[in-house]
Amino acid sequence: MAGKMRPHYFLHISFPHLLVVMITYVCRGIGGILRNDEGAWVGVFSELIGIRSNMFAELLGIKEGLIFCLDMGLSRLEVETDCLEATKLIAKEDVSTHQLGILILDVRGLMKLFESLAIKHIFREANQCANGLARMGS
């Protein structure tokens, strides 16, 4: 297949958002769906992560999704998440004083292992399948 580009894959990452008043830590799961460029499911993952903050769950979901894709031997990836803040933190230059800085740096390190990778924000309504997998993990 000389000259032909490999398929582009999409990874949808999510965790269940719960409406909680005055509580910032709840039991959570993470999950994601891997689709090819034609929209067909290639793989899924779901995992219980216990009592964590919302942002920790979002960033860990992205990290575990990247590891999942690397294990499958993928090199071109587009990650879609419904957490705009996570995409901003990953792109932010200095996270040395952020409480989740180590996790953010882990994600950045994994991103460098791909030939092509983009992380983009999508609306929650477009991420319902991944949300369901995350609920299964919790």
From TrEMBL:
Keywords: Membrane, Nucleotidyltransferase, RNA-directed DNA polymerase, Transferase, Transmembrane, Transmembrane helix
Pfam families, alphabetized: RVT_3
Superkingdom as given in the UniProt entry: Eukaryota
Presence of the UniProt keyword Manganese in the record: no
Listed CDD domains: RNase_H_like (cd06222)
Entry keyword annotation includes Nucleotidyltransferase: yes
GO molecular function terms listed in the Swiss-Prot or TrEMBL record: nucleic acid binding; RNA-directed DNA polymerase activity; RNA-DNA hybrid ribonuclease activity
Record-annotated membrane-spanning stretches: 9-26
Annotated RNase H type-1 domain residues: 29-136
Protein name as annotated: Reverse transcriptase
